[in-house]
Amino acid sequence: MGRINFDLQELQAFVAVAERSSFKQAAEDLFLSQPALSRRIEKLEEMLGVKLFERTTRRVQLTNIGRVFLSNVRTALDELEGAILNMSDLAAHRTGIVTLACVPSAVHYFLPDVLKGFTERFPKIRVRIFDESAQDVLNLILAGEADFGINFAGAEDPEIDFLPIYKESYVLAMRHDHALAKRKKLSWKETASERYISVSKSSGNRSLIDNALAGVEKHPVIFYEVNHVAGILALVEAGMGVAAVPRLSLPKYMDATLVGIPLVNPSIHRTLGLISKRGRIMPPAARTLFDMLVQSSKTDKSVQPK
């Protein structure tokens, strides 16, 4: 095999276009002209002998080969950057980068205080956070693109080590001025006449609820479907209806607008855990952050049910 002849600028140009889905915006980010950026991409494609992007007058998107190459390039650039940063003190893991994948609710409830303490100990270590859906988080761990994750999916996967850190219940989110807002708990049957807002059927949350309610006589009727819990809560806040959501999906410091009432008969729970790829040795800095999250989950009362 002949020697591969390209430089970092071409790889950086490729990543910039892939992330922006635009030659114009990527060129602005890199302080290049569009023709100069295009030449870098063309040179890279010519060297690889493959087409990395599908280009039309309206959009730019990665080809299937381009998506695979992007994952590999990101990993390679991270490792190269980490090697450069860590030359003098790798053993002490005082510099470098930690990549963490987690469901969005975990960002609010588990990360801020731990990251603050981690940064105070290791101010030169950077942390990259992928806040994605449960399935995307699992895929990032399995692909080796994140050091570890916080997720409620993966416990049954033979390639995943799953360490439970929190068991959360589902609550009914509603406005504070709703007729049921003062209740201590609500059965699903009592709320069957409410206008429900839900995530789509492809969501793990929706599947969990549908399976749990399979034997319930009266089912809630879904009037609105959205793709993300943030959209659900926006509609609830606007007075469009109520929604069954995991407790951690509600804002950590709720104002007077929304309340979450525990749902019973049946009670539905899910377990959040720290996940990592089985058999993979975590880099020292990632292991330190992982251990700090474990310790925090044992002592932090702010994530305990009220």
Structure in a nutshell:
The protein has 306 residues and is an alpha/beta fold.
Write up this protein.
With 306 residues, the protein is an alpha/beta fold. It folds into three domains: 8-73, Winged helix-like DNA-binding domain superfamily/Winged helix DNA-binding domain (Arc Repressor Mutant, subunit A), CATH 1.10.10; 85-165 and 271-303, Periplasmic binding protein-like II (D-Maltodextrin-Binding Protein, domain 2), CATH 3.40.190.10; 166-270, D-Maltodextrin-Binding Protein, domain 2, CATH 3.40.190. Helix content is 39%, strand content 25%. The protein is built from ten helices and twelve strands. The strands form three sheets. Strands 3, 4, 5, 6, 7, 10, 11 and 12 form an eight-stranded mixed β-sheet that branches. Strands 1-2 form a two-stranded antiparallel sheet. The protein has a two-stranded parallel sheet with strand order 8-9. The chain is globular. Keywords: DNA-binding, Transcription, Transcription regulation. Residues 6-63 form the HTH lysR-type domain. Belongs to the LysR transcriptional regulatory family. This is LysR family transcriptional regulator.
Keywords:
306 residues; alpha/beta; Arc Repressor Mutant, subunit A; D-Maltodextrin-Binding Protein, domain 2; 8-stranded mixed sheet; two-stranded antiparallel ribbon; 25% strand; disordered C terminus; LysR family transcriptional regulator
